[in-house]
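re the bet — no i am not wrong, look at it urself. input seq straight from the record:
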Amino acid sequence: MYLPVVGLEIHLQVKTNSKMFCRCASQYFESEPNTHVCPVCFGLPGALPVPNKEAFNKALKLAIALNCTINKETKFDRKNYFYPDLPKGYQISQYDQPIGENGFVEIEVMGDSRRIRIQRLHLEEDTAKSLHAENDDTLIDYNKSGVPLIEIVTYPDFESVEEVILFSKRLKQIVKYLDISDAEMQKGQMRFELNISVKPDSMPAGQLPDYKVEVKNIGSISVLEKVLNFEVQRQSELLDKAEKIKSQTRGLKGMSGETFFQRSKETADDYRYFPEPDIPPIHISDAQIQELANSIPELPHERKQRYMDVGLESEQADIFVDDRTKGDWFDELLKLDSQKELVKEAAKWVVGEISGRLEKLNKEIDQINLTQQDLLEIVQLLAQKKISGIGVKKLIEARLVEENNAKKSINDLVTELGLVQITDSSEVENFAKQAIEQNPKLVADFAKNPNVIKALVGQVMKLSQGKVNPRIAEEEIRKLLNN
């Protein structure tokens, strides 16, 4: 049996108005090709690069948030290679003095915390976009060339495909929380390069295979998962045949996850790094680090823990962490009432009924008439057994769908819609008798299958239009059937 050994390189386009080393607009998506270019983009004689301060500070802020050690003196370097998407013949990047090193990201796997180490975080410029025409010509759009790019390199700490996916999702959350990048993967703002090997499960922990396969330009987390599964299977089958796997770079066949050989893998020496002569070293002060550290908001893992501390399930917390609009809305509810039982019940309705209706309405939760106070009042009525679960759904629908109901109080809506729950045992008994009389087959099945009681309760709820307390209905049905 073989185990995957995985490291990731993540490229993030930084959210800025201009490119990394010039004043060209960085928002190039869907622009006319080659309209966001200048002499600096092309490295023309006499054109000098000037680092983008906002991009630098955002990279530094992300390095701090990822628990990196910050290099107080950092510099830019030239990474030399010839490729059509690199107009200068080199890329301005960082080599031996990146902004941040030796950080980590915490992920949760099967209820346990797992730490993925970050080897380095550095800043560079993006390359141009290659467009392959049907007649085998390749066209180049240089609008993307020079856009600020953060590269994050992990250690090969991943031990499963699941861990890679969890890490990728968590990193995307962090980046968006910090407003470093919009991380819209369909626009190429977040891309993955995968380094993967497999090793026999008998190989000692910490020992790595003598090769690694790189797969570049993976543009979605779902495709990343497919590539991982494909490469684990492909490499395992080769090793089963006693074939030697060489270090190589492989391309991606569309969105399928299948890969194909492109070239032997380069090493750092192949790039002939040397310091960028036109940009002096940059000194980072303690005050600058502290100022950026103080500006870091509550991060996703901290937010999740806060939700779980007030009683939410892990899956519910994840929804509020991932959907910040929904999470912010729920935070306002927590300010009104922090009683665990009410909070848990409110969360259940937000994640379920309310989210489902929002999807149908194509609205965000902050665009609806239902307020946090409304929801608290509704779940309080439910807890007091004054309304049923069906009544909750009708109240939510009334608030979300009917504009005229926006100014009515919850209590007025309960009365107007006739949602006051029937708790009088004699009234419930009458509904129970009707349900039994009208459903002889269910009654006959009850002797063989006690779970049939749920179907009979459902009939009582139908007859009472949801006004009967289901627990009392079940009690009355059992009394009648046992007689």
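see?? DSSP finds 16 helices and 16 strands in the chain. told u. also The first helix runs from residue 39 to 42. so pay up
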